[in-house]
Design goal:
Number of domains: 2
Largest sheet: 9 strands, mixed
CATH class of the largest domain: Mainly Beta
Radius of gyration: 27 Å
Number of strands: 19
CATH architecture of the largest domain: Sandwich
Order of helices and strands: HEEEEEEEEEEEEEEHEEEEE
Structural class: mainly beta
Number of helices: 2
């Protein structure tokens, strides 16, 4: 890493070359750390979205990584009104440069470079160096790739995908399973709601406390009844245990069914 030994006495010969040397050292370090995930845009800290009671979105202040730069975000808001044409909610960069007067030439030049990002309505929905849609913005500290595991049980099968967000210490899990009622019932279970293990998460991906979540049956397409004939199956209870097991409370039904889920699990 580039650095200057500033402990030496006798009058350091400060020139533009040495300032450029120091700035390049900082730039190299920033790009080595930030560039590990690519050009971005990524949230480093803050930039949390909330939805006020009257609708719309509010973004808090924070810091962003985009195209080799770490830049402050002042936040902003979107009132929730209808968008027209190519409009979309997004981020905008505003330069905030300052001038310096140069001693030898007397020239006044915008040499102090700065700027900030703000949240609002993007007029044309395009991505450039100074604007991008909100959907492009992702947490920086997040697993680059999701991990998918197969789910195979006695009478049910499918797959599940999980990915950790290291920034806010949460985990997203998505998946689906097809339940063969005859095969599952033949195992001697499903006389009522019975929890079945769908898989196990590795260390570092397990919640501190057992956390419930929901699995959904898309009943609007083809409603099915449970085996009592009284209730339609709509939502199945699931949970992620602190030991890493993911389980679903499968219900005996009048016919086979498929469950899907997509949820965020806090890990602390």
């Amino acid at each position: 890493m580039k650095s200057l030994d500033l402990t030496q006495t006798g009058g350091f010969p400060l020139e533009q070359d040495w300032l450029a040397w120091m700035q390049q050292g900082l730039t190299d370090a920033v790009n080595a750390l930030g560039g590990a995930r690519g050009a971005g845009p990524y949230i480093l800290t803050g930039c949390t979205l909330t939805m006020p009671g009257g609708g719309g979105l509010i973004m808090s202040t924070g810091w962003l990584w985009y195209n080799g730069q770490i830049t402050y975000c002042v936040g902003g808001g979107y009132g929730g009104g209808a968008l027209t044409g190519t409009q979309t909610v997004g981020m905008f960069y505003t330069p905030n440069n300052s001038n310096l007067t140069y001693t030898d030439s007397g020239a006044v030049l915008p040499s102090l470079k700065d700027g900030f990002w703000a949240f609002g309505v993007n007029a044309d929905g395009t991505t450039t160096d100074t604007q991008f849609p909100l959907t492009n913005l992702q947490p920086y500290i997040k697993d680059a790739n999701a991990t998918t595991i197969a789910i195979i049980g006695g009478g049910f099968s499918g797959s599940m995908t999980y990915r950790k967000n290291w920034l806010d210490n949460t985990m997203q899990i998505t998946g689906s399973i097809a339940v063969n009622v005859s095969a599952v019932t033949a195992t001697g279970a499903l006389t009522g709601p019975t929890y079945y293990s769908l898989g196990m998460l590795p260390a570092g991906y397990r919640p501190a406390n057992t956390t419930p979540f929901s699995l959904y049956y898309r009943y609007h397409q083809a409603p099915i009844l449970d085996d009592t004939g009284l209730d339609h199956i709509t939502i199945i209870n699931g949970e992620v245990s602190s030991s890493g097991y993911i389980a679903a409370g499968l219900i005996k039904a009048a016919s086979n069914y498929t469950l899907t889920w997509n949820t965020i699990i806090p890990l602390d």
